[in-house]
Amino acid sequence: MSDGVRVPLPIVLIGPMGAGKSRVGHRLAASVGAPFVDTDTRIVERYGPIDEIFDREGEEYFRIVEREVVAEALREEAVISLGGGAVLHPDTRDDLADLQVVWLKVSPEAVAPRLTGGTRPMLTEGGMSRWTAILEARAPIYRELADYDIDTSRRSVARIVDAITERFTGGRR
Ligand SMILES: Nc1ncnc2c1ncn2[C@@H]1O[C@H](COP(=O)(O)OP(=O)(O)O)[C@@H](O)[C@H]1O
Ligand SMILES: O=C(O)C1=C[C@@H](OP(=O)(O)O)[C@@H](O)[C@H](O)C1
Ligand SMILES: [Mg+2]
């Protein structure tokens, strides 16, 4: 357990859809007693459901709104979970260059059951082959930005939280 451990903030989670950014971020924040920000949740609070934004206004508009919310969030001393495509914005990549960034990795086999029943608009057509194509396009960006990466495919959320905590505290407990 890592309760009461002080980690330097912000810590930002990036990676593909279904890697566990939202879930791990929530648990990491609770574990270290830090505020938690999920930028998709903020978008939904302000602009409504993400699939409806895509339907109504398209991806390009979503990315503009997302950038605004991400820019604000990255100024907070919090654990921050981004949406998988937030790194597509060059200003976000600039911001992340100076921050502590964790890339949550996941294999296609492990992610498939995590994505079933979801409403992610990027996956409404094409399913897993689309997920894989999107990851291939974005992986170089995730790699470039990450200070630490961890494969979540066969790890529990608790183990992932402990690994991230250890990385950013040098194992001090
Ligand atoms: N390490 C894990 N092992 C098993 N299931 C997980 C793990 N991390 C997340 N999940 C599940 O996978 C789904 C997607 O997780 P989520 O945190 O929304 O991913 P992201 O925010 O990266 O898209 C959720 O149902 C979540 O409970
Ligand atoms: O990868 C993407 O382009 C997206 C990822 C989603 O977030 P998660 O990565 O948390 O699923 C959400 O921001 C939106 O549906 C677009
Ligand atoms: Mg998420």
Automatic annotation (TrEMBL):
Its main location: cytoplasm. It comes from the Bacteria. It is found in: Cytoplasm. ATP binds at residues 18-23, 120, 155. Its cofactor is Mg(2+). Catalyzes the specific phosphorylation of the 3-hydroxyl group of shikimic acid using ATP as a cosubstrate. This is Shikimate kinase. It comes from Agromyces ramosus.
